[in-house]
Amino acid sequence: GADSGGEEEEEQGSGAAGSGPGRHGRVNKRPRKAGRQRYRDVIDAELEKIRLDPLAFDMALLEVPGFIAENPRLEEKFRRRLQGVADELRAARPEASRGGTAGSAPSGSSGGQALRTSQPE
């Protein structure tokens, strides 16, 4: 997907002149494939929970895995992405499913929430 967790930084080696950082002599802030896949797996699992019940999603109760929490930029991206999807799904639901009576007609209002599109960082 467009959101592959590219913010997770890894420092490789000391960067001393001539020695070349890392095993392959490259300086790259992109995490290895396994790290990107791990982030994607966590995002996919959390998004599935949100899709099942967007009204139950509570950012305050979100358990952020350690490998994400230790990187402030990645944690902010993680939280923004989940909150954005939850907001979009909540806005797309009819008013009747937001606690109104079963016989009430949807008002057509989105509850004052604008739909946001996910933007890759």
Beta-strand segment tally: 0
Mean pLDDT: 74
Q: Tell me the overall shape.
A: elongated
Question: Helical content, roughly?
Answer: 25-40%
Q: Count the helices. How many?
A: 3
Low-confidence stretches: 1-16, 100-116
What is the terminal-to-terminal distance?
A: 12 Å
**Multimeric state of these chains?**
single chain
Give a structural overview:
The protein is mostly helical and 121 residues long. The chain has a domain at 43-92. 37% of the residues lie in helices and 0% in strands. The protein has helices at 33-52, 66-69, 72-92. The model is unreliable at 1-16 and 100-116 (pLDDT under 50).
List the helices and strands and how they pair.
Blueprint: H1 33-52, H2 66-69, H3 72-92
Region (Disordered): 1-39, 90-121
Biased composition (Low complexity): 97-114
Biased composition (Basic residues): 23-37
What's the short story on this structure?
With 121 residues, the protein is an all-alpha fold. The chain has 3 helices and no strands. The radius of gyration is 20 Å and the shape is elongated.
Defining key terms:
single chain; mainly alpha; elongated; 3 helices; 121 residues; 37% helix; disordered N terminus
